[in-house]
Amino acid sequence: xxxxxxxxxxxxxxxxxxxxxxxxxxxxxxxxxxxxxxxxxxxxxxxxxxxxxxxxxxxxxxxxxxxxxxxxxxxxxxxxxxxxxxxxxxxxxxxxxxxxxxxxxxxxxxxxx
Amino acid sequence: xxxxxxxxxxxxxxxxxxxxxxxxxxxxxxxxxxxxxxxxxxxxxxxxxxxxxxxxxxxxxxxxxxxxxxxxxxxxxxxxxxxxxxxxxxxxxxxxxxxxxxxxxxxx
Lengths: 113, 108
Prior knowledge:
The complex is a heterodimer of chains A (about 110) and B (about 110).
Chain A: E1 5-7, E2 10-13, E3 19-24, E4 31-37, E5 43-50, E6 53-57, E7 64-68, E8 74-78, E9 87-94, E10 103-104, E11 108-112
Parallel strand pairs in A: 2-11
Antiparallel strand pairs in A: 1-3, 3-8, 4-5, 4-9, 5-6, 7-8, 9-10, 9-11
Chain B: E1 4-7, E2 10-14, E3 19-25, E4 31-37, E5 43-48, E6 52-56, E7 59-64, E8 69-74, E9 83-90, E10 96-98, E11 102-107
Parallel strand pairs in B: 2-11
Antiparallel strand pairs in B: 1-3, 3-8, 4-5, 4-9, 6-7, 7-8, 9-10, 9-11
């Protein structure tokens, strides 16, 4: 079974640009989660999508947004990039329901210069 | 908000040694997971353990939800066990709050 796949692996952008990160969940998983892991910080919850809808959002400004497509894949968009947005962005997926463990992808490392 | 603290923050072991990592959380939670982040950043789900004890090879975990802590045991450690170990607690709306992490280095 293929795991959660994320692309690109690495992304380098300059301040003010936009970044788009992509995630494909495990087959059969309808929930997709996005996390940010900045240098020296723990994993911070960004967004949760389920069945195409945004279900929950972490404490991030509106320039962090995303969507989930009918095939349950997801995009994370970061507008007006700032230097402190440099981080590892991890996507996870799970089966529907409250008691489903999360499975993580390998992440996208975003560097903003 | 809920606080999730892990100890120790850093741990250095000789290959073959055993260790116990601890995760304390400040409020009732729906579920708890342990993850291993390897040196390449990949995050791997180790245990999904809201309560009780589970074992998987050299690893085992115990969660005592009433006392708000969980333990991860690593026996006969190997160099491939190196990395950061996170516990994460699940609140409502499937939001995972991650602990501060334990950085483990296993030397040959």
